[in-house]
Amino acid sequence: MAQKISSHDLKELLDGKSPFALIDVRESGEYNATHIPGAALIPRRRIEYIIESSVPFKGTRVVVCDDDGRRAQLAAATLDNLGYTDVFSLEGGTNRWASNDLPTEWGVNVPSKDFGEMQEVVHHVPEITADDLHQRIENGDKLVILDTRTPEEYHNFCIPGGRSMPGGELALRITDIKKDLEPGTTVVINCAGRTRSIMGTRVLQRMGVEAVGLKNGTSGWLLAGYELEYGGDRLELPEVSEESQAAAEEYAARLASEDGVKYLDISGLQEVLAKQEKESVYLIDVRTEDEYKAGHIPGFRWFPGGQAVQRSDDIAVVRNATYVFCCDGKARATVIASLYRQLGHENVFAVNGGAPAWQAAGQTLESGFPTSSLAGMEAVEASVKKVSPRELDANKPDLVLFVDTSEDFSQGHTPGAKWITRSWLEVEVVDAAPDKGASITVTCRDGRGSTLAAATLQSMGYTSVTALDGGMAAWKRAGLPVEQGLTGIVRPPSDINYLGVSRSYGEMMNYLRWETALGEKYAAD
Question: Are 376 and 48 in contact (CB under 8 A)?
């Protein structure tokens, strides 16, 4: 059974060197508003989805927190049920933490964003404003614009004329890119805001390649009054030449020496893999999706290099853990491992030779993506009765609940459904369904979260609970009517933190001011 931990004792854990995870189980909108520095965000409704990759070793000490302790206790019970053996909930939550004059911060992925701003200030990373870039495009100047976001983000919208070049690929491919450019061409690096632009430009700066980062990325471009391009199709990454590979490997060797990246040969990797039975070890393959699917070392999780840096706290949930990065040689894994060392992580390794070395040692590679069910799903599947879309449409229950996010709910739910996020289910369902004999059907996007929620309702004593088989995806495939908007909400939504161009102009400006302000302390130093 989970225990309680005081703010004072948590502060000692945060200041120490022991491996542990501090997990904030509120929704992203709440977390964005304020949280404890060092807390990873895993909303309670997402625990079963990602906890086993976030905290791989179930003997790890895990501290869960929220604002007042109520959801944290529910989350702690879930972790207990999933086999985690050293679980604590923070007494009084972040409210009591703050009342004890302990620090809080706001924003998401703060460690990475703070690191990016530090890099810009300390190393004078060059940048170009949206106005200057727009003028140079209008003038017909020689430019190449490299978008370091994911291919999916790039395809949604990009700077006109930009090409996709995910951040983790820059060091490996820049020599080939430069070969194809006319002399005097300016290399411009962009993302949606600041961090990936800064980090990509810094990687090239350190490599000796001249480049500039687009100040404030696509957000700054929009705020300056310029149009984005939608549906960009310049996505292809050409084969890497021997020359480009050699230049990247030479750069990687220098980074490893300067930043303290340690290499593992295959026998060393196998020793680290054996440690997974007694500690949390993060195994990250930073190559492209196609490369990963073609063949990867068993147990390695795909997280492309640029995203592994942008979202470091989504990977490094267990503090003071071990991190192993892998690619097809040394270059890409070393660049990311170097950045993790600079972020302050101590036990950081790169696999010498990557996946090809594993195969050359007589070991087998896996292809595709690993198939895995939600944690605890097998235990509840048999206990929850499912109804088909046609059955639900023909036989309306007393109450239909939708338990995914408010954004998912607004984009489509069964007519008359009410929204209660699964994070608050036990607290709020009592008002929505005071009679435990009422018939209730639970829905979500794909049928998984609703199955877990239905099992929770059964454990609370509700006697007539079903889950919509296949969720709203199946409902829509059946051609049944869909209601949109936020009718049927039980509480004002606080679960969504809108990103990038999904923000209003005011929100974009506030976000960019916040991010820039992170670097001010380094300027003062």
Answer: yes
CATH topology of domain 380-477: Oxidized Rhodanese; domain 1 (3.40.250)
Q: Is 251 helix (H, G, I), strand (E, B) or coil?
A: helix
362-381 residue pLDDT tens: 999 999 999 877 998 988 99
**Tokens 């896996």 sit on residue:** 366
Q: Are strands 439-443 and 322-326 parallel, antiparallel or unpaired?
A: unpaired
The answer to whether 472 touches 433, Cβ cutoff 8 Å, is no
Q: Taking the domains of the chain in order of start, what are their residue ranges?
A: 3-107, 113-238, 248-360, 380-477
Instruction: Return the ∠ at Cα 512 (arms to 506 and 518), rounded to 5°.
Output: 140
Contact, 91 vs 5, CB < 8 A?
A: yes
What integer is the mean pLDDT of 201-207? 98
Q: Pairing mode, if any, of strands 385-387 and 399-402?
A: unpaired
> What is the SS3 assignment for 278-341?
CCCEEEEECCCHHHHHHCECCCCEECCHHHHHHCHHHHCCEECCEEEEECCCCHHHHHHHHHHH
Asked whether this chain's domains 248-360 and 380-477 adopt the same fold, the reply is yes
Amino acid at 523: A
Q: What is the DSSP letter of 208?
A: T
pLDDT tens readout for residues 30-79: 999 999 999 999 999 999 999 999 999 999 999 999 999 999 999 999 99
Q: What is the dihedral of CA 67, 70, 75, 80, to 10 degrees?
A: 130
What would the pLDDT profile of 88-139 be if each residue is shown by its tens digit? 999 999 999 999 999 999 999 999 999 999 999 999 999 999 999 999 999 9
Measured between alpha carbons, how far is residue 494 from residues 33, 385, 427 in Å?
10, 31, 16
Which CATH code of 3.40.50.720, 3.40.50.700, 3.40.250.10, 3.80.30.20 fits the domain covering 248-360? 3.40.250.10
The helix (H) or strand (E) run that includes residue 464 is strand 464-468
| Edge-to-edge order in the sheet of strand 212-214 | 127-128, 212-214, 186-190, 143-147, 163-164
SS (H, E, C) 343-371: CCCCEEEEECCHHHHHHHCCCCCECCCCC
Query: 3-class SS at 411?
Result: helix
Residue with tokens 């230049």: 247
d(CA 477, CA 473): 6
* Mean pLDDT of all residues belonging to the chain: 95
Strands (E), 106-211: 127-128, 143-147, 163-164, 186-190
Q: Which CATH architecture has domain 113-238?
A: 3-Layer(aba) Sandwich (3.40)
What's the CATH class of domain 3-107?
alpha beta
